[in-house]
Design a protein that fits this description.
By secondary structure, this protein is mainly β. The protein is built from one helix and 24 strands. A hairpin with a 5-residue loop joins strand 8 and strand 9.
């Protein structure tokens, strides 16, 4: 038999014009996928269109002693597909921020800044062109663990699905300003996959950085992913710094400065189990990171944490969930845990009620508390209400000051029926001892 099929393909973001494509499939053989004989469009043949989102958010916080914080942001995340008809993509992401901090005992702080998160031009990396090239500011594509780059990235995917590549450029400072130009990096990677499904993958990378032209960091990154259709899934990534005799605090050799690993399992019954491990240490580098560490912290400080979380249905409407964790660093260790019961269709249809108790203990004190949360979905939006009461036991204080109760309340609303718009608002209050604070905020977004 002969078949002809008509396909309606969508319009661009700026046009309502529909385009009909008709393909003659010729002789059809039983068992052959119906659309295999339709020629796929090359990137430069696709419609030129813009997709993405624009957004705005604001948050006002007022506390006792005339303390006030205001945060407002307006931004956009835009993708121009088939840019200029050349089959490439232009990605633009940025935001305009304004923040004000006012206190009675200081002059306060007021700043406004434009932050460019991404501005990049990408070619290739498709079924037609296995070589991918990106230039500009972007999070490195193959191994995001290498960080945001102001430069160029080249990679190539082999027929087996494995890939390799290299990048060069400057690393912006990981702070609110995102200043760039002080830290030059060169990196290379290789990613092996067992088959085209990529259920098993191994990746490795080396990154060399220079701070103000001086040799700085020699970093190796290893990554492992195993995600079968059923059974246990494993994910792990490790950062290993290599030092020389010139690194006085660390000494020559290798150090595991950061690691994250998780093993997880999901069952058809709805039960789940997640076991995770995290390790963080200070690398000895010239580049200024988020915090300033002392010499003692750089030499010896490290934090290790293990955690186990689980969920188990008790019935079609009840779910038991919990987590336990423990951590240790060079000075102390501690543990935390939570156990909760989630009830669905509670009182109202499409509603959820969650009741949980939690505790934590560290070197200087502990906390014991409970939380109740209620969510319901209606035709005009989603309503959320939550209340939390906790008691903070502080070691080393007098009897009148060693227990500090804290109350937290939150109400939120996500509006429905707005089409391409999404909007939400929230109100939160905290009460502890003679201190009080309240905050209100909104989030508004439009999909393009």
């Amino acid at each position: 038999e002969r078949f002809a099929v008509g396909l309606w393909v969508g319009a661009s973001a700026t046009s309502n014009t529909m385009v009909q494509v008709k393909a003659d499939l010729g002789e059809y053989r039983k068992g052959t996928p119906l659309l295999t004989q339709i020629r796929p469009l090359r990137p430069d043949e696709r419609a030129q269109r813009m997709t993405g989102r624009v957004f705005s958010l604001g948050d006002e916080l007022v506390a006792t002693h005339e303390r006030r914080t205001s945060i407002y942001r307006v931004g956009a995340d835009l993708l121009f597909e088939n840019f200029l008809g050349r089959g490439a993509d232009l990605h633009v992401e940025g935001e305009y921020d304004h923040s004000t901090v006012e206190t009675t005992d200081t002059d306060g702080d007021d700043f406004t800044r434009l932050r460019i998160e991404r501005l990049s031009y990408t070619t290739g990396g498709t079924r037609f062109e296995p070589t991918r090239f990106e230039i500009g500011r972007f999070l490195q594509h193959a191994l995001p663990e290498l960080g945001v780059l102001d430069g160029a990235d080249w990679s190539r995917r082999s027929a087996s699905g494995s890939s390799y590549g290299a990048s060069v450029g400057f690393l912006p400072e990981p702070d609110v300003d995102f200043n760039s130009g002080d830290d030059l990096q060169f990196a290379a990677f290789y990613r092996w996959v067992a088959d085209p499904t990529e259920r098993l993958a191994l990746a490795g990378a080396f990154q060399k950085t220079f701070h103000h032209g001086d040799s700085d960091r020699d970093l190796f990154i290893g990554k492992f992913d195993y995600a079968p259709n059923a059974g246990w899934r494993f994910h792990g990534v490790a950062w290993i710094d290599m030092y020389t005799s010139g690194d006085d605090l660390k000494g020559a050799g290798a150090e595991l400065t950061q690691a994250f690993a998780v093993a997880s399992r999901r069952w058809e019954s709805g039960r789940s189990l997640d076991l995770s491990y995290m390790h963080i240490a200070y690398p000895e580098i010239e580049r200024e990171e988020l915090t300033t560490a002392t010499f003692a912290q750089l030499a010896d400080e490290a934090t290790d944490r293990v955690a186990l979380s689980a969920r188990s249905p008790l019935s079609s409407r009840a779910l038991l969930h919990g987590r336990v964790g423990a951590w240790a660093d060079m000075d102390e260790e501690g543990a935390d845990g939570e156990l909760g019961l989630e009830l669905r269709e509670f009182v109202f249809r499409d509603s959820r009620f969650d009741l949980a108790g939690f505790t934590a203990r560290g070197k200087f004190g502990g906390v014991l508390g409970g939380r109740a949360a209620f969510d319901v979905t209606t035709r005009i939006g989603d309503l959320g209400l939550a209340y939390e009461l906790s008691n903070h036991d502080q070691d080393g204080f007098t009897a009148d000051n060693d227990d500090l109760p804290q109350h937290r309340m939150r109400a939120s609303w996500r509006f429905a029926g707005l089409g391409e718009w999404q909007a939400s608002a929230w109100l939160e209050a905290s009460l502890w001892d003679d201190e009080r604070a309240a905050s209100a905020g909104f989030f508004l977004q439009r999909s393009l």
